[in-house]
Fold each of these.
Amino acid sequence: MIAIVGAGLAGMAAARRLENAGCQDYTILDRESRAGGRVDTRIIDGFRLDVGFHVASTGYPAFQRILPSFLLDPEWFDAGVLLQNGVGELVPFYHPLRHPRSAWDAGWPPFAAWDLFHFATLGLECLAGFGDVWAATHHGSAADLLSKRGFSDLCVESFWRPFFGGVFLDQDLQTSAGLLRYYLRAFILGRAFLPGGGIGRLASILREKIPDERFRFHANVREVEKGPDGFRVALDSGEILRAVSVILANGPVGVSQLLHWPEPEMRPTTTLYFKSRRALYPERCLVLPRAKDALVRHYVQLTNIDPGLAPKGSHLLSATVLNNQDLDDGTLFSLALREIGNLMPDAAGLLEPLHVTRVPAALPAQTPQRLASWLERRANLPPGLLLAGDLAGNASQNNALETGVAAAEKALWMTGRLT
Ligand SMILES: Cc1cc2nc3c(=O)[nH]c(=O)nc-3n(C[C@H](O)[C@H](O)[C@H](O)COP(=O)(O)OP(=O)(O)OC[C@H]3O[C@@H](n4cnc5c(N)ncnc54)[C@H](O)[C@@H]3O)c2cc1C
């Protein structure tokens, strides 16, 4: 038997690969009552609210090879953002090759010519294959990379920090430069999208091809031990399962606990959802406030991208908060409304607080040192104990899907079912 611990994207990608190879001798164990892990969409007052702000991209190889994006009913973002220029006004900044007309209409971008030159050279490097996350360990932090490249302060504060601070949940951009390249490559090569009906669709589509009887929910794995004839998987209930191979796909904290690794530092995020009778702005893109100490790191009129997220006649906007997340809901809503209103004065009369989603342990801190330490530790795992998900690479949907499939293939190979 092959045991998969964790029914998130990584665990289910592994299960799908086992099913495709005709292997039915496996179980997916999850301590919760549902599959999907950190990927979840909840319905509140008829609105479809993702648990935290998520975006997918066709630039992720996994959305071609493992879970083709067309299965996800993609709803597309435009390749651009609204950001604050040197005098604090909101201006559009579009990818000139994807939206030449909009880029032309927007006029000269709000940055210096040398910033555009650095964008072009960094983009070309990423396309040429320097997006490899492992190179990350040699390349310092994202902040170092941007400063060594010579991007202006205006460019860092208007674009890089709000955008990638939001992606990494790391205002200081101490995340590995390799990851910045990894994501930049995905955004240049592909199109950003929301799976129709919310990010939870990633999980529900994966789950469709896995028979219900392979899942065991409310099954918290307490310990995994290697013995002379395979692995002993101990559940909280006292039950012991025997497995020839174990795929640990139970998220960074869960994996660290089972392997007795130092617990990763997890980064929180809070998402404020507002409803309204009409859209606050018409573009299909994120808005990036510039101030580093701003409460709202970015916001987006989600129903411009997927109208199906709100009941008919309503609109949905999400604001991602990284600073001061410990404030109560009412204070967060009023501060956020004030900040959004400073950029778009209609906000005050239009946006109504709907719901707050708090994710206290969303992503692990992914500094170059931490990525290097996971790489080193992985090399010492006993044969048959396989890792999938964040600690097997990085915290992304792409990595979860790819490392899930790779772990399943190793398990099949070890049990002689894949040659
Ligand atoms: C708010 C947020 C926004 C994100 N945005 C993006 C984005 O825009 N783009 C992107 O690429 N990535 C994004 N990510 C990252 C991406 O969602 C994750 O990296 C990916 O979903 C991880 O999947 P996983 O299966 O490895 O882990 P998880 O989803 O964490 O699944 C682990 C599963 O293991 C179970 N488990 C844990 N311990 C045990 C145990 N001891 N026994 C049994 N079961 C256990 C848990 O219940 C869970 O179901 C985001 C993540 C969050 C939280």
Amino acid sequence: MPEKYFSYKSLNDLRADCQRLGVDLTFEEKLDALSHSVKIGNRTIGNAIGIHPMEGCDATLDGKPDELTYRRWERFGAGGAKLIWGEATAVIPEGLANPRQLLLNEQNMPDLEKLVKLTRTAHRENFGRDDDLLIGLQLTHSGRYSYRKPLITYHHAQADKLTYLDKKNGVKLPADYPVVTDDYLERLEDLFVEAVKRVHTLGFDFVDIKQCHTYLLNELLGARTREGKYGGSFENRTRFIRNVLGKIRSELGDTIILASRLNAYDGIPYEKDMATGVGKALPFDTPYQYSFGVDRNNPLKEDLEEPIQLIKLMMDLGVKMVNISMGSPYYNMHIGRPFEHAPIDGYIPPEHPLMGIDRHFRITGTVQAAFPGLVVVGTGYSWLRQYLVNAGESNIRRKRVTIVATGRGAIAYPDYAKDAVTLGKLKPSNVCIAVSHCTNLMRAKNNELGQFPAGCVPRDLIYAEILKETLGKKKRSPEPLTEHKQ
Ligand SMILES: Cc1cc2nc3c(=O)[nH]c(=O)nc-3n(C[C@H](O)[C@H](O)[C@H](O)COP(=O)(O)O)c2cc1C
């Protein structure tokens, strides 16, 4: 494995490496399509650049936005992207992924409303208008990865091996651990519907029913081995999302834009090979019985038949925008977010990051080709650093995606959209370098709150200080955050 994957001095160096690896990544030098407006439902946004949901694990312990949450959203608002996809927000306390995730309930409404207003105001102050900006919120239940206890929809032979009942004491999920009942899922459907109504009242333009990254609704899509009305057939596995969308439609009509971030390919669980440090797939049998979007005869590859069927079904139920993602941040992180250095709970990637990016672009391109009129948001751009906009421009021109968005790229460089539009390029000194410190912070639980905030260590001083604190090197300074504002 090379010590350094990203060593390109020019776009042509990168092009040459793509050719060497045989991946279908193309780049445009002149940016144009990225600044074109895009119609989403009954709204039009001012450019084709977005910001993916990026949790900062910095809410108060009762799930309200806190100082760093406001700061992050405000920076996103001021950054120029016209699609801001608000981060994972739990619809119920037991579905929180960590103690500092946002929680949508009655008490937290005024604070979440303030968050939207602040983001809008920041945008308006910088760009003179905000009627062409769309802000959404991602609604989630963390399922197997709920921090209080795993809430699983079925036993997944490989994922179970890597799921902890009690991480501190190294206790894994027992074979007889109960799965959530059909009654539980029925009640959860109603909670999602209630949550969507709240999102609407708060002034968000769109809502995302999260079905990605192996959290509960995503897991359900692969629940072939589950008994009862939510498991087995495609019809049963999609019952939850169909019911939720159907109920939202009948209660809210078209008053809020419906969206979903969807795993088009879950992949299968990987673990670190202790001898080499490289990620290796856990042994599996075929036909593979688990996960969504996998080729059952070779789950290391995608099979998009069901994801495409699901998207069609969601469109019929009013979904106007899908954000295509893949993989699990817990058990195959190289798939979802190609990286340069592994996070603390990770492994050396078993493939060149460009192969992972190629998988993202290929799968997203297939979805876009199946639904040319659908707004498809693409993922997997950040590792490309300053060249991500050149790849995004090319993907839009090739009709492989509608909106190009970044996650890690945006916490490193919140105003990357502004630079793409006004300068026609990104500044290399500001881009994400994919060294996984944001994930390391996310995984750091050793403080009195049980969770450290996550952000960009190389590009944002506040988080460099927090990283030191996680390593026991420094106490966090009590200085007001406003001093660090740009
Ligand atoms: C710190 C951190 C927080 C994230 N939070 C969310 C989230 O709230 N919801 C979500 O769907 N994805 C989340 N992701 C995944 C990103 O949105 C994105 O899919 C991933 O980083 C790959 O895109 P990129 O290459 O542009 O970073 C998170 C990733 C990181 C590293």
